[in-house]
Amino acid sequence: MVSVHRLPAVALPACCLLLAGPTSSMREAVCAVRGVWELESITNNGKDQPLNGATEMKIVTQRYWMWIGQDARRDTLPLKTLVDTLRRNSIGGGAGTYTATANAYVENIDFFADPTWLGKPWHATCRVEGNRWYHSYPFPQDSTGVPRDSIAHIVEVWRKVE
Question: How far is it, in rounded angstroms, from Cα 27 to Cα 21?
């Protein structure tokens, strides 16, 4: 009669975990950007860029992002010219899919005011601390996300509102 060696009951789950792949604690952490965010501040090469009452929000789901922004006091503009009317009725924004790793965040642009960016990536670094998201990138970038004679390094700080 052939003897069959049995693994202890405790060893079997560990063995199965190794076959199933790394657990979430073994994988690289992902920058936790899911939620609703409001723009709190912007710096350009370390200098504060006042928001002057403009508001911006970014909504990030498991796979998609959407950004929308508007200037302050659009309702007080005198509607004397076509430019005044266009500015009063203008809201900026964009949307698409994204990928995030521990410190990188890439937005793939599906909707945007500038049609030359459609279908292209926007590369940024990503760091979330508490309810603050530090989103930084070189500006301008070319369509591959590589800086073009980079004239600025932008850091946006977003505050999580939901």
Answer: 9
Q: From CA 28, how far away is CA 26, in angstroms rounded? A: 7
Q: pLDDT digit string (tens) for 116-150?
A: 889 999 999 999 999 999 999 988 777 666 666 66
Query: Can you list the alpha helix ranges (DSSP code H) found in 76-128?
Result: 82-88
Q: Which of 122, 113, 162, 118 is CA-nearest to residue 140? A: 122
R_g of the chain, CA atoms, integer Å: 23
Count of residues for the chain?
162
pTM across the whole model:
0.72
Tell me if 156 sits within 8 A of 42, measured CB to CB.
yes
114-119: long-range contacts, CB 8 A cutoff, minimum separation 24: 116/143, 117/143
CB neighbour class for 140 (10 Å; exposed up to 12, middle 13-18, buried from 19): exposed
